[in-house]
Write a structure and sequence with these properties.
Keywords: Coiled coil, Phosphoprotein
Number of helices: 7
Strand order of the largest sheet: 2-1-3-4-5
InterPro entries: Bact_response_regulator, CheY-like_superfamily, Sig_transdc_resp-reg_receiver
Strand content: 5-15%
CATH architecture of the largest domain: 3-Layer(aba) Sandwich
CATH topology of the largest domain: Rossmann fold
Shape: elongated
Pfam families: Response_reg (PF00072)
Structural class: alpha/beta
CATH superfamily of the largest domain: Response regulator
Distance between the termini: 28 Å
Protein name: Response regulator
Number of strands: 5
Largest sheet: 5 strands, parallel
């Protein structure tokens, strides 16, 4: 069973959190509440999240400060942050949000469909990355097993075929997602993330091809960045 992605919702007003949950419930993912920047940082210590929806105006640690802490941590620096704000901001205020590491900046009241669509993109990217890590882990196991059990070519070939089939499914999904992003004129950050995912998939495909009989020794397999 595919594990659900976690989405972190950060807002000091319970009614706003309830509204976000109502909008995003259709995505059928795990929604995690945080009523302050401090509570959000605590949640990020133990759980992995696909995307963070972060309110700008909060008492104590505001959204900008919270984002700065998130981006300083190696574990969380790559999590996409979507800022939500009720402030009638100008260009300087928007620039501050992007400078803090946000991938998007949405003013309240926002269009529920647009917000759900934007979050869905980052959830899809997160799930594809999880699948990619799984394929990489299986590949490492194959390499280690190949060194220890070189006298078992049939089992090795079977595992290679299974890995190749799984990778093909991820490649197909990633290609469809990239096409959707291009068709929808999506955010530059989402497009760049999708391109990075496709590059990693290409590297993994080359690694699998290098393990095929007659393709050379396993030691020639390129590393994954």
């Amino acid at each position: 069973m595919v594990q659900k992605a976690k989405i972190l919702l950060v807002d000091d007003r319970p009614e706003n959190l309830l509204a976000l949950e109502a909008i995003l419930s259709a995505l059928d993912q795990t929604l995690v509440r945080a009523s302050s920047g401090e509570e959000a940082l605590k949640a990020l210590l133990t759980d992995d999240f696909a995307v963070i929806l972060l309110d700008v105006q909060m008492p104590g640690m505001d959204g900008f400060e919270t984002a700065a802490h998130i981006k300083r941590r190696e574990r969380t620096r790559d999590i996409p942050i979507i800022f939500l704000t009720a402030i009638n901001h100008g260009p300087h205020h928007t620039f501050r949000g992007y400078a803090a590491g946000a991938v998007d900046y949405i003013s309240k009241p926002f269009d529920p469909w647009v917000l759900r669509a934007k979050v869905s993109v980052f959830v899809d990217l997160y799930m594809k990355n999880c699948q990619l890590r799984e394929q990489a882990a299986l590949l490492r196991l194959q390499l280690e097993g190949g060194e220890k059990d070189s006298d078992e070519p049939k089992e090795s070939a079977g595992l290679l075929a299974e890995l190749s089939a799984r990778l093909a499914a991820v490649e197909e999904q990633a290609e469809a997602l990239t096409k959707q992003l291009n068709d929808d004129s999506a955010d530059a950050a989402a497009v760049a993330t999708a391109a990075h995912l496709e590059r990693k998939l290409t590297g993994l495909r080359r690694a699998l091809d290098a393990l095929e009989p007659g393709a050379g020794s396993a030691s020639s397999v390129p590393s994954q960045n």
